[in-house]
Amino acid sequence: MSGAAPAPQDDEPRIGPNAILQTIGVLDRHLGRAERDRVMRLAGVPVPPPDSGMLPESQCRAVHQALRVDQGEAAEGLLWLSGLATGDYILANRIPGFAKAIIRVLPGFLGARLLAAAITKHAWTFVGSGRFRVESFRPLTFRIDDNPLRADAAERPSCFWHAAVFERLFGTLVWPEVTVEEISCASVSGGPCLFVLHPQGKKTAMPSSVHSG
């Protein structure tokens, strides 16, 4: 199944454009323009312009799912790289310099709470019709119900894009050694997606390696 996006509706929930734009950038760098265009055709989604606003949730989901169908396990690493790039974009363009400076100088547990609060406030930009909340502060755990970017089905937690976004943000501003582990995934169990942050790092199941191209 290609997961081609249905025609967007005016009232459809939307997700920030980096869910697609950064994925396109990763595909261009690692697989080449021809393969990128193939994935977009499979998704049934036009390539959005670089200055796109919020995009229909169905299109973002279709691109991520088409990448999984087309690339198999390699899609894990590609979506991870897209998530890291999205985190870099947020750090450079969406978090004011003074806010980053404050978070960096606070003790880790306070900086983490401040950053988690900011993420919660803007969660609609990356969960669309899904629902986001902080499940726990010890350890810091994020929960997404009805995650629109989840895989259709998977044998293990597979929301690498979201995990990478969280890891880049907290690794840059709060805990340099942090790792993010998805311990529950809607793609596997049908329940919520749960992401645990390990401040001192933890060996976790990493996405399949990306081959350069």
TrEMBL record:
InterPro entries: BchJ, NO_sig/Golgi_transp_ligand-bd, V4R. Residues 139-199 form the 4-vinyl reductase 4VR domain. It comes from the Bacteria. It comes from Rhodobacter capsulatus (Rhodopseudomonas capsulata). Transmembrane segments: none annotated. This is Bacteriochlorophyll 4-vinyl reductase. GO terms for biological process: bacteriochlorophyll biosynthetic process; photosynthesis. NCBIfam families: BchJ.
